[in-house]
Design a protein that fits this description.
globular, single chain, mainly beta
Length: 231
């Protein structure tokens, strides 16, 4: 799998070591005062149920999305671009800096197009970790599970696992809790590599040209499948 494929979430804050607790600020001169940060906590019980309901409601309100993104690949490489999303099923990552590839879903198939080598790799969008973002109706139960929700620094970190395809990787969504706005996501692939993406200046429920979810097939006609993708 290409190292840039299946963008994940920008880790907005580094989790404190396990077991670390909040400590009181000692009465010392201001110059010697240390910043106090609360340790991450698990969201449980009725609070968890309410949080899941708010997340589902927030995601289901997003019919379309356009945003800038910042992506960090597993090898530390950083790239930027524009992401377009339209539910159900449609997704596109346009990369800047003349990077010779494109990720796009036409509503059914998610395609990775490498224009440098004229190759296309395709997966059913619903069978990838990104599928949860473009489901017709987002539900965090049934075919998927949320093993734990972590609250930290005003954010919620929510792993979403397809129970039938857990070995193929999973996505973790990161929300700003106050407005339950999706800020970022991360994808852990089958090899354990993490790709992170943060959304910048998102625009919700905007009209997106249908051509955004098509692409130019770089392969010679003779090498295209009979029922393969067309422009």
């Amino acid at each position: 799998m290409n190292k840039y494929f299946l963008a994940g979430a920008l880790v907005v804050s580094t989790l404190l070591p396990a077991g670390q607790t909040v400590q009181a600020i000692e009465r010392t001169p201001r110059a010697e005062m240390k910043t106090v940060e609360a340790a991450p906590t698990l969201v449980t019980g009725e609070d968890r149920e309410k949080v899941i309901a708010r997340i589902e409601e927030s995601l289901n309100k997003i019919k379309s999305l356009k945003a800038q993104f910042i992506q960090r690949a597993p090898d530390g490489t950083t790239s930027e671009g524009t992401v377009f999303l339209e539910r159900p099923g449609k997704l596109r990552f346009d990369y800047e800096d003349d990077l010779p590839f494109l990720i796009v879903s036409d509503g059914n198939m998610l395609s990775f197009i490498d224009y440098e080598v004229d190759q296309i790799t395709r997966w059913p969008i619903g069978k990838t970790p990104l599928g949860i973002l473009v489901d017709d109706t987002v539900s965090l139960s049934g075919k998927v599970e949320v093993p734990e929700i972590i609250r930290f620094a005003g954010l919620l970190k929510v792993p979403v696992i397809d129970k039938e395809r857990e070995e193929q990787g999973y996505i973790t969504l990161i929300f700003e809790e106050s407005g339950m706005e999706l800020k970022a996501w991360e994808v852990m692939d089958a090899q354990g590599y993490l790709t992170r993406v943060a959304l910048v200046n998102p625009q919700y429920n905007v009209e997106i040209d249908k051509d955004r979810f098509t692409y130019k097939d770089p392969r010679p006609i003779s090498k295209r499948p009979v029922h393969g993708p067309r422009k």
